Amino acid sequence: MIDVSHDEAFYYLKKMMEIRQFEDKIMELLSQNIAQGGSHLYAGEEAVAVGAVAAIRPDDYIVSTHRGHGHCIAKGGKLPELMAEILGKATGVCRGKGGSLHLADVSTGNLGANGIVGGGMGIATGAALSVKMRKTDQVVLCFFGDGALNLGIFHECLNMAAVWKLPVVYICENNLYGMSVSVKRACAVQDLTKRALAYDMPSQAVDGMDVLAVKEATSRWVDYARGDKGPSLLICNTYRYYGHSRSDPRKYRTKEEEQQWRDRDPIKTFSQRCVKEGILSQTEVETLEKEVEAEIEQAVQFAIDSPWPQPEELCEDVYA
Amino acid sequence: MREITYRQALNEALAEEMERDPTVFIMGEDVAIYGGAYGVTRGLYERFGEERVRDTAISEAAIVGAGLGAAITGMRPVTEIMYVDFMGLCMDQLNNQVAKIRYMFGGKTKVPLVVRTQGGAGRTLGAHHSQSLESWFIHIPGIKVVMPSVPYDAKGLLKSSIREDNPILFIEHKMLYNTKGEVPEGEYTLPIGVADVKREGEDVTVVAYSRMLLFALEAAKELEQEGISIEVIDPRTLLPLDIDTIVNSVKKTNRAIIVEEDCKTGGTGAEIGMQIVENAFDYLDAPVVRVAGADVPMPKSPVLEELAIPSKERIIEAVKELVG
User: Cα B74–B36–B55 angle (5° rounding)?
Assistant: First the structure.
């Protein structure tokens, strides 16, 4: 038996479907040249963002990554504004100045995606310091990929957070590859939870394809952080279905490997479990999928119909 | 009026702002128990406690990065990077995160962050502890770069910087900490982005900032004896640059010299000089002149170090050549 209510299950499934369809749609828009530039897609990793964000409150913070659409959607970002931002439209959540790599909706406690690998780690650590100094009981979820594990700022921030016992959960989305270089070839230590030992910080690895497992593990470390016990490191093992970006031929991994992960698809497995255990009905799942499809279409239409930024906006927002 | 040192002026600014606003706090290497490598934060740890005066590990990227995170979530951090030479270790944080976050977010956040640091030659510390890197930073839209030369400006500008809702890189000079100047008792602030005419004159406009301002004023005194009158302008803030004050002076003197301690090539003087040309070309009787640092890593030997940066003598020489 899985321990989840109907409403929770419905919500998790809806959010995961939104992310999946959002990402599939962007791939389509990119190939039609309606979306320009690049985009790092989150398809395959939905259970991590949805499960982790389900464990926090609306007033808690998250810090996202270059593969950040999923985090934004999970944290309550509005699909039309996010889609418009990715197209560079004036109605975008960042007024068309951020784009895919800088999606941020501070009004939802999302302190932003980042074009620099590991670029959000300082921000997350500082937000946690601010929480501690302001004496609120908020927590920060700091998402980053396995590629960030070997950056200096990873070490600097985990150390700082541990020394000051800051309320932050460092969530490593281990999708096995930093662009093309595998964790096997990039990391000296293969058991990534061991990285926390250097900071005397607790850590745990979890199946990142299982939304409930991610939620449960995140809740544990969120409680730990809220209880003023300090930071933790959570490794979510997951997989990105698309390449690193649009131009990636995925020569560094096999079709078999891709299929093995797709067999464990977070949306398919979760919806099948829920149906099997009578938490959701098959009809509900199918209807939901259609509803999300319509929602995404509306978001795309909104984005396409939206105006471009005005020329005078170029020099606005550099300074307060 | 009372005279205090540049160091004391900065220390007073920090103490007053911490007293006034509980969200202001200090974070950096050796800022608490030690009181800062150059003593600027001395006594603040004892007065405000370890919560608000935070010693960190040697982690420049985390200091600036965490400063940013705290700044966008309700605090006003004053971070310290011990030497401007160490800014390379946190350049991604400053350039890619701190400076751009507001713009990338479409204006939906404010960044009330100060990064204090100090630079410059004069203590024969060699290539990793003596640089003048300000030209790196004036190329970064989104931050402001403040470089005070005298105690009065140091205090007023640091207080304004702490109250500012934009990120400020506040670059002090290691050779100025013990210099004294008049600073009134009590509260005052100075506007960021406004130059100050430190000495009025007729024959040449000399733009000089940070320690070079002192050299320019010394040169002015000697030149006065010889009947040459120079107008000395301290921009005080390099980004944004108060070009209007400089141009107004050039319109009067028709000649301009920029004195800068940083390397000449791609330096701050190139930018200031070009802005003079763009805005006052018709008023110039001669090309704009730069008295600048040599294009070399800073050498250790005191003899070579002195040669690597401008001096009073070089300024006098340049002025005479220009008016001669």
Answer: 50
